[in-house]
Amino acid sequence: MFLTKIRADSGDRSPWGGFWFNPVPFNGSAVTADASLQLTAVYACVRVLSNSVSTLPFLLYEESADGTKTKIKKHWLYRIFARRPNDFQNPAEFRSMMQGHLSLRGNAFARIFSNGKGEVTDLIPIHPDRVAIELLTDTNWRYRIKNADGTTTVVNRIDMFHLKGLSGDGIMGYSPIQLARSAIAGAIAAQNYGTRFFENDAAPSGGWIEHPSNFKDNEARRLWRESWQEQQGGKNKGKLAVLEYGLKYHSGVAISNGDAQFIESRKYSVSDIARLFGVRPHKIGDLEKATFSNIEQQSIDSVNDDLMPWVVCWEEAIRFNFLDPDDDTLQVEFPIISLLRGDSAARSLYYNKGIMGGWLTRNEARIAESYNPLPGLDEPLRPLNMIADGAADEEDDEVESGEALPANANPNDSPADAPPAPGKSDARLVALASAAAERVARKEVEMVSRALKGSRESLIDAYSKLAPFIAGAIGISAETAQAYCVEQIELAQQADNMELDRFGEIACCKLERLAIQG
What we know:
Helix 6 packs antiparallel against helix 9 (262-277) and helix 14 runs antiparallel to helix 15 (456-474). The protein is built from 17 helices and eleven strands. By secondary structure, it is mostly helical. Strands 2-1-11 form a three-stranded antiparallel beta sheet. The chain has helices at residues 33-36, 40-54, 76-82, 91-105, 176-179, 181-199, 218-232, 257-260, 262-277, 295-322, 344-357, 362-368, 391-400, 424-451, 456-474, 478-492, 500-517; strands at 59-63, 69-71, 107-114, 120-126, 131-137, 140-146, 152-156, 160-164, 207-210, 248-251, 330-333.
């Protein structure tokens, strides 16, 4: 009796099949990782994490005792993760596939193949459903792989690259789909219900037939039911039925979608699944509760809180499997700085503060923006107001002391006749330009805040009056000041959706650049 109720599409029912071992949720349908992908929210979460990891660059570098990092490209580890992990995948495809397995099943496996010199030549990904772990001792195990021809291959720990998520024993990671199978099953059931509802012309279906007496046996009842479903299903749905022999049709009683909160349950399922995978809802297209005023900050938080743990998981697994634990010089990294850059205005402000603060060189900023370095831009600027006490006086003392003077110099020359110390005048110029730009930017913000209360013409008139002041305050031509004002008028129109502090920072950055360039 039990076997007759097993549906034909219920999975592999062989003695080694997964049908007998898959946990079944309360609604009676087995939930697997592959079945869960029919939910767009599940697929979107896995896609977001996989694509994010696959697009990150891979860096291998040697770190010296003083913290200096030297990139290394002629190394087998760099070739594996940055050039060619195997003969049929590029690095992006390999990492996307592995992260997909890791996100969906909690584990990702790749078999390690090495040459006679101990250098890894290939990483062959293996589907997690084909891998089983055999525990040898409490701290040692091996992997048993089920091959396509039915045979098995035993692989030692050192020959398997194993990525795992949250784990209860440190050996196998938890599968999020199996842990939340009831929530996933509920979402699938709601989706299937919606499909059936619209197949029934968006009307509740079902009902029952009243027979004046009784069917002669169960077979007659079954044949009548199948005949009714055939006549009233598919293209015949909604057509008039003619009943004979005194039969009567009674429509079923169904709860409305509003009472069942069908739409609300579908929305909650999306949020619930996003929470399961640790992905912000707006990253998978759920913008119902998104606040667009800080959407950029939410995206940055998504990188730090949602993606960063997986990136660290990759980095630590690579160190553990491929690097000598006693050698701290070689380091691996998937830099995520490109995902945190923000818009062009925010990046410009960041680089400007770094360069003017002296902790970032101009060439470092160019390289970060994928520009080639230029000669003479490798030295950090030294703002005058950031020089340590006495440092500026020491430079003056070098000129005034006889030891610092050249042999052909006249000792009677006044210090004013001596050339300034290298870099000192540049630092003073930068400090003066920065102060002037801040003063003009404050005045501009005050003017914009007043002008925005009126029309566009009032804003244009205000900037036309401000242009001469800008030219005189930072020492630029009237034409340059006028061009700046025209550009700022368009930006000021968006100030309703932008904090005035942010507007002022952008203006200060532009003005400082104009003041320095002249």
